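2024-03-11 09:14:02 DEBUG pipeline.ingest accepted 1 chain
2024-03-11 09:14:02 DEBUG pipeline.ingest length=325
2024-03-11 09:14:03 DEBUG pipeline.predict start
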Amino acid sequence: MIRWGVLGLGRIAHKFVQDLLTVPEVELLAVASTSQQRADEFAAQYGAKYAFGSYEELVTCEGLDVVYIATTHNHHFENTLLCLNAGLAVLCEKPFAMNAEQVRQMVETARSKRVFLMEALWTRFMPSVQKALELAENQAIGQLKGLRADFGFVAPVVPEKRMYNKALGGGSLLDIGIYPLFLSYLFLGKPATVKATAVFGETGIDEQCGMVLTYGKNQLAVLNSTVVSKTDTDAVLYGDNGSLYLPGRFHEGDSVIHQPHEGEPETFTFARTTWGYDYEAEHVSDCLRQRKTESPLWSLDDSLNLIGLLDAVRAEAGILYEEDK
């Protein structure tokens, strides 16, 4: 039995816990919020044994194996270190932290203490993405030449809420642009060049961000994110002998379509009844049972590389936060 705690009880925490409770041999042991009332209500809703009105209380809870961190981006760094320094394994929401320096410190702490740490990039564990990666690696579409991916929706303009609040790590790139960028890294690796530009709104956040990445094998990735318009939020991988299509919304999709240049397309579908967070929760639970300190599918080096790409995009596009000082 792997006993979970949840730190930060917003909307995504509800979805994660709903899926967590479908995973075999796990228990929701404790939850924590900055509000005791919110913690009590959350614990009662999902059957957690303990409810804490502070994060510091959570890390002293006996019997905890791992903590899922679901706070806003700007708090990931301090919340992760709090748990790691208490000897607790951590699954922390994406983006891992606000910049590469913060992630480096998180990784160094986890490795020095030999405590499990993983970024909650749930898309990496979706069966549709794993199938697309398998097809690409087996050259089902020949040599991979390019990738196009986008993520866009209309976010309500509420300056005090996370999306439009720079102090909370708001903006399209860190919140949703990370998904197209992650996909380019997963399939193409680290780029040779990064070009990016952004359109900024009245609150100072990047409302739109466009990225073009090139690679040493004459490959190209074209990516974008926006919180001011609804896009297809799909992805296409182009090879010299066909393509792979991940329909919208690709980051949580349940299918992949293989279209060879000659012949009929083949669709692979992976039906589910959950949001999709159960795949990463089960993976983390399995890693802990096997005494692993890093995921073999999404390692800490992968997270370091991804935050490095995010930093490079931000430097190009002029997306700055207080933490960068």
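2024-03-11 09:14:41 DEBUG pipeline.report The chain has a mean pLDDT of 97.
2024-03-11 09:14:41 DEBUG pipeline.predict end
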